C-alpha cells in the first residue's frame, strides 16, 4: 500500500500517503495500521519520522492509539482536515471551474478504461462505495468521503498508475473545494443516482455508456457548485 518517500520533509510524505489511502478507501475507519517499525520499513524512513507523522495525524483526529490487548494505531476518521491535504488551491469560482474542467478531461478516459479493465473485486468495491451514500444519514462530509472513494475506485479499476495519480491529485483538491462550500443537500441524491448509472455501465463493460454517464455526473456536480456561487453573488 505504501511506498518509499523522498528524504526532504519525509514525515510529510508519510502523512500524505496515509491520508491518500484513507481517502481512497484502502484504509477505513476502524482499520489498524502496522507497528511503527514496520511502517518505517515500508516508507523507507526512520522510526522518529513515522512517529512525527503519526503525532500530527493523531492531533488532527485522523488516527488514535488504543491501549491494552488488541490495541495499536487505528483510523478513526475518513475525511481529512484541510491543512492535511497537500494542496495550495484557493477557492475562487475560477479555481473550481478549472478543477471540474480538468477532471472532466481526465476522468472520461479513465472511466472508459475502467469499463474495459475492471475486475470483479473492483466492481464490488465500487458497489460498496455507492452503498455508503445510503447507509445512514447523509451529510456533506459523508457525501464527499463516499464520492471520493467511488471516483478513486474507478481510477484504480482503470489499471493505469499514472492516471490514478492524476485523479488522486484532482480529488484531493476537490475535497477541499466541496468541504469549503456550504452544504448542498439537494445535490446528494442526484449525485448518488448519477454515480449509480456509471456503475451500471461499468458492470456492463460498456465504455461509451460509462463515459456518457460520467459526463452526466460531472454536469450534476458542477450545477450544484454553480448554484452556490450564483446564490452567493445575489445575497
Widest beta sheet: strand line-up: 1-2
Distance between the termini: 46 Å
Please write the CATH class name of the largest domain.
Mainly Alpha
- Please state the average pLDDT score: 83
The major pleated sheet works out as: 2 strands, antiparallel
β content, as a range?
under 5%
Number of alpha- plus pi-helical segments: 9
Low-confidence stretches: 86-91
Order of helices and strands: HHHEEHHHHHH
Question: Which descriptors apply to this entry?
Answer:
mainly alpha; Arc Repressor Mutant, subunit A; Four Helix Bundle (Hemerythrin (Met), subunit A); 9 helices; 66% helix; 3% strand; globular
How does this model look, in words?
The chain has two domains: about 10-80, Arc Repressor Mutant, subunit A, CATH 1.10.10.10; about 85-235, GntR ligand-binding domain-like (Four Helix Bundle (Hemerythrin (Met), subunit A)). Residues about 85-90 have low confidence and may be disordered. A hairpin with a 5-residue loop joins strand 1 (about 65) and strand 2 (about 70-75). The protein is mainly α. The chain is globular. The protein has a two-stranded antiparallel sheet with strand order 1-2. It is about 65% helix and about 5% strand. About 35% of the residues are buried. The N and C termini lie far apart (about 45 Å). The protein has helices at about 10-25, 35-45, 45-60, 95-115, 120-130, 140-155, 160-180, 185-205, 205-235; strands at about 65, 70-75.
Amino acid at each position: 500500500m505504501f511506498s518509499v518517500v523522498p528524504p526532504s520533509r519525509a514525515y510529510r510524505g508519510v502523512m500524505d500517503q496515509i491520508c491518500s489511502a484513507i481517502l481512497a478507501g484502502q484504509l477505513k475507519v476502524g482499520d489498524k495500521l502496522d507497528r511503527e517499525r514496520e511502517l518505517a520499513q515500508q516508507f523507507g524512513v526512520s522510526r522518529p519520522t513515522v512517529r512525527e507523522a503519526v503525532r500530527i495525524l493523531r492531533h488532527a483526529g485522523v488516527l488514535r492509539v488504543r491501549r491494552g490487548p488488541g490495541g495499536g494505531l487505528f483510523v478513526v476518521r475518513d475525511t481529512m482536515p484541510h491543512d492535511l491535504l497537500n494542496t495550495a488551491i484557493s477557492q475562487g469560482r475560477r479555481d473550481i471551474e478549472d478543477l471540474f474542467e480538468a477532471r472532466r478531461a481526465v476522468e472520461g478516459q479513465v472511466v472508459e478504461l475502467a469499463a474495459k479493465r475492471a475486475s470483479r473485486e473492483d466492481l464490488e468495491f465500487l458497489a460498496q462505495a455507492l452503498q455508503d451514500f445510503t447507509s445512514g444519514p447523509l451529510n456533506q462530509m459523508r457525501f464527499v468521503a463516499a464520492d471520493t472513494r467511488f471516483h478513486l475506485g474507478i481510477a484504480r479499476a482503470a489499471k493505469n498508475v499514472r492516471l490514478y495519480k492524476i485523479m488522486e491529485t484532482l480529488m484531493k483538491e476537490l475535497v477541499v473545494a466541496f468541504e469549503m462550500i456550504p452544504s448542498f443537500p439537494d445535490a446528494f441524491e442526484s449525485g448518488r443516482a448519477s454515480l449509480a448509472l456509471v456503475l451500471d455501465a461499468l458492470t456492463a463493460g460498456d465504455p461509451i455508456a460509462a463515459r456518457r454517464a460520467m459526463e452526466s455526473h460531472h454536469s450534476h456536480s458542477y450545477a450544484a457548485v454553480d448554484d452556490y456561487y450564483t446564490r452567493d453573488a445575489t445575497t
